[in-house]
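This section describes the prediction task in plain terms. A model, or a person checking by hand, is given the sequence of a single protein chain and must write out its three-dimensional structure as a string of tokens. No templates, partner chains or ligands are provided. The sample shown here is typical of the held-out split.
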Amino acid sequence: MLLFRWLILLMLLGAVVSFTFYVATGQPRYREYGLRTLKWALIAGFGFFAVLILERIA
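The expected answer:
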């Protein structure tokens, strides 16, 4: 459980770093990396909370 939380946090941090690189350099590839990482971090976060809710119900 703790590992999963750290994984989501690191993915969000990676997205922030990618967006920072995009702002600093103006290269669109960093924006794409950031959006892709953010998308997967949100999917993982929603999955994490879905598991927590299902554990609470059962």
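For orientation: The chain has a mean pLDDT of 94.
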